Amino acid sequence: MFDVLDDIISEDADEDAVGGPSSNDQYDDLFAALRSELYPGVSSFSSLNFLVKLMHLKVLNKWTNKSFDELLKLLKLAFPKIDLVESHYEAKKLMTKMGLGYSSIHVCKNDCALFWKENSLKDTCPVCSESRWKLQSGKRSGKNVPHKVLRYFPVGPRLKQLFATSKITKLMRWHSTGKSKDNDVMRYLVDGKSWQEFDKRHPQFAGDIRNVRLGLAADGFNPFGNMSLSYSMWPVVLTTYNLPPWICMKAEYVMLSLLIPGPQSPGKDMDVFLRPLIDELKELWVHGLDTRDAASENGVFRMRDALLWTVNDFPARSSLSGWSGQGYRACPTCNEDTPSMRVIGKTAYFGHRRFLPTNHHWRSNLQFDGRTERKRPPRRFSTTDILEQLRRVKTGIPGKHPNYGGVKRKRGDDELNWRKKSIFYELPYWATIELKHNLDVMHIEKNMCDSLLGTLLADPHKSKDTDNARRDLAKLGIRHELHLFEDGNKLMKPAADYTFSEANRRKFCRFIRSVKFPDGFASNLSKNIA
Q1: CA–CA distance, 295 with 209 (Å, rounded to integer)
Q2: At 105, is the secondary structure helix, strand, or coil?
Q3: Which residues of 140-165 are buried (b: 16+ CB within 10 A; e: fewer)?
Q4: Which residues are CB-neighbours of 176 under 8 A, at least 6 positions away?
Q5: Phi and psi at residue 292, in whole multiples of 5°?
Q6: CB-based contacts of 133, cutoff 8 Å, min separation 6
Q7: How far apart are CA 401 and CA 109, in angstroms?
Q8: What is the gyration radius of the CA atoms in the chain, in angstroms?
Q9: Given this model, what pLDDT does residue 137 score?
Q10: CA proximity to 296, closest of 25, 34, 20
């Protein structure tokens, strides 16, 4: 983390950023602290550099505000000439000017609404009328304590920091200067169809390579580790795709924009929490933000930002996109043409042979589902088709109150699998983006690997070759050699060709145990193999 702090508040920034015309007077104090020596004769640390790193240590080591104040007093006492703030409160005020602060936004206990903007002065939820504050014995306690607090970290000020030094500013142009010159090679996201179509539709935005392209990711985690307490907190992070691929995914360049409180996941109410971010993204698209460019002779330019897509696992994708990932039409790409059937205990999705060439021999093989596959790949739904589907979706009541948003609403047939029209459609450009939501390959790879290995090794807990799966084969009338049969009073399950014998399982485990990976690429697999 110190590396990126040095990039933002290095001595080079004194030459690159301070020398140009200022785009905001609030930075005057920052530049003054950047130029001042921490202590007379000490040139290795500026006052601002030392304070930022001290605040970083406070966060890493979970110092209390009081202990931080005591440390500042001790430093002042030991070094009377030190140029340092007096308290943690003053330090936070200075950090806010750097864009490192955040806004605390109160939330209804049922996730119905934010007490923000037009609702900021209200004491009860505008949807369910529940109190904004925690009550004791039916009465408000002496100090107003909200039920939930959403932390919002403004995006614009932190994006401005990326242009504060000439080193990072040049990297912010890499998506244009470093992209592949071969049209047939996809080296980076800029070479993809979605990015290129976006540039064609918005030539004014694409005309300035300094305009920022963002990606959004969100997922839940339990902040209490492995404790039995069930709690789901959702961070929403942004990635800057202007940067090279070996930099944009590093932790110091990934920006936390929202910290959504638990204890439950936001689910269908994700849009309630995304409201501050979407409003800022609309402002950054329409009006932009005056930004100091350390690598340009002109000094200040109008920076505009665009959200290109989201990256999530399948459940989070449902919360963000509005298309439910459950039921007979779960596939968001096939949409209403999703091929599915009901099997014992679950819904199964089939028809994957439609993606094969029309003359492929697997299309006529009856071992898949007992039928010949003659269908073509699923049709591609246009922007007009999707908007027409969303026009038919009824607006639901937000929140989880049992008498309001918590009441389950049965979708009509004309609504397909849409649960809502996502808040992302408020962005002026969102409807025309080719690829709006991406699936996180890490989750898919892990789940597929677990299922595949569990089936090959005949693991009773992870194998997909279950008794019910064999009964489904009998129901479909295929793969007769795998059907269950009775032997006296016992139900027998024939061994399948795709499962390892005991001898082969041992060979496989010995091989996995002997595999060596470069340091840091994988855990020690031998510890997990008996």
Answers
A1: 13
A2: strand
A3: eeeeeebbbebebbbbbbbbbbbbbb
A4: 190, 209
A5: -80, 125
A6: 123, 140, 141, 144, 145, 146, 147
A7: 9
A8: 28
A9: 64
A10: 20
Describe the crossing of helices 47-60 and 28-35 by its angle, rounded to 10 degrees: 100
What pLDDT is attached to residue 18? 39
Q: Can you give the pLDDT at residue 27?
A: 60
Query: Which amino acid belongs to residue 317?
Result: R
Q: Where are the alpha helices (DSSP H) in 310-352?
A: 314-321
CA distances from 513 to 167, 179, 233, 506 (A): 44, 40, 36, 10
What is the pLDDT, as a whole number, of residue 10? 47
Q: What's at 396, amino acid-wise? A: G
Complete DSSP assignment for 59-75: HHTT--HHHHHHHHHHH
Give the residues of the chain that fall short of pLDDT 70. Answer: 1-31, 33-34, 99, 137-142, 226-228, 528, 530
Give the tens place of pLDDT for each residue, 465-505. 999 999 999 988 888 889 999 888 888 999 898 899 989 99
**Secondary element (H or E) of residue 204:** helix 203-206
Contact in structure between 152 and 101 (CB atoms under 8 Å): no
Cα atoms in the Cβ-side hemisphere of radius 13 Å centred on 511: 6
Handedness of CA 354, 357, 361, 362 (dihedral sign): negative
d(CA 476, CA 291): 64
Output the pLDDT for position 139.
Answer: 67
Helix (H) / strand (E) element for 309: namely strand 305-312
Question: Rounded CA gap, 500 and 205, in Å?
Answer: 56
> 88-97 and 47-60 helices cross at what angle (nearest 10)?
110
Distance separating alpha carbons of residues 268 and 396, to the nearest angstrom:
10
3-state secondary structure of 96: helix
Helix or strand run (H / E) with residue 230? none
How many C-beta neighbours within 10 Å does residue 9 have? Answer: 25
- Sign of the C-alpha dihedral computed for residues 174, 177, 181 and 183 taken in this order: positive
Phi-psi region at 327: left, alpha or beta (left = phi > 0; alpha = psi -120 to 50): left
Q: In 174-272, where do the E strands start and end?
A: 212-218, 234-240, 254-260
pLDDT of residue 140: 63
Please state, in angstroms and rounded to a whole number, the distance separating the CA atoms of residues 299 and 16.
10
Tell me: the pLDDT tens digits for 335-348? 998 989 899 999 99
Of the candidates 186, 215, 234, 192, the one whose C-alpha atom is nearest the C-alpha of residue 437 is 215
- Kindly state the tokens that stand for 165: 């030094």
Beta strands 340-343 and 490-492 are unpaired
φ/ψ of 448, rounded to 5, equals -65, -40
Pairing of strands 148-152, 254-260: antiparallel
> What per-residue confidence (pLDDT) applies to 7?
45
Predicted confidence at residue 9, as pLDDT, reads 47
